[in-house]
Amino acid sequence: MGLATVIAGYFLIISSAIFFITTMTWIIGAKLLFGREENAILRWIQEDKYYCFLIPMIVPTTFILVYGNWLSMKFFRHN
């Protein structure tokens, strides 16, 4: 493994962590941590009833889709 690959890997891990923390703060933390905000985006997130259910449902949906993709690839290769 070269140095460029290691640096790219660390960049992907750090940027993914920053993205995850930022979006979780916006979606979950905006309702729990912040009071009534003057920011239009945070106020919209606080009043929303959809995204608090969407994010937890993405995890099982992703697992089902990944498993289906893996299973169909196994059927394709071994047929």
- What proportion of the residues is helical, as a percent range? over 70%
Low-confidence runs of at least 5 consecutive residues: none
Radius of gyration, CA atoms, in whole angstroms: 19 Å
Query: What do the pLDDT scores average to?
Result: 84
Count of helical segments?
3
**How many angstroms separate the termini?**
35 Å
Question: What is the general shape?
Answer: flat
Structurally, the number of domains stands at 2
Please indicate the percent range of residues in DSSP E strands (runs of 2 or more): under 5%
How many beta-strand segments?
Answer: 0
Estimated structural class: mainly alpha
Order of helices and strands: HHH
Taking the sheet with the most strands, its summary is:
none
What keyword list fits this structure?
mainly alpha, flat, single chain, 2 domains, 79 residues, 82% helix
What is the structure about, briefly put?
The chain is mainly alpha-helical and 79 residues long.
Describe the structure in your own words.
The chain is an all-alpha fold and 79 residues long. The chain folds into two domains: 1-48; 51-79. Helices cover 82% and strands 0% of the residues. It has three helices and no strands. It has helices spanning 3-32, 40-47, 51-77.
Task: Give the helix/strand layout.
Blueprint: H1 3-32, H2 40-47, H3 51-77
Helix pairs in contact: 1-2
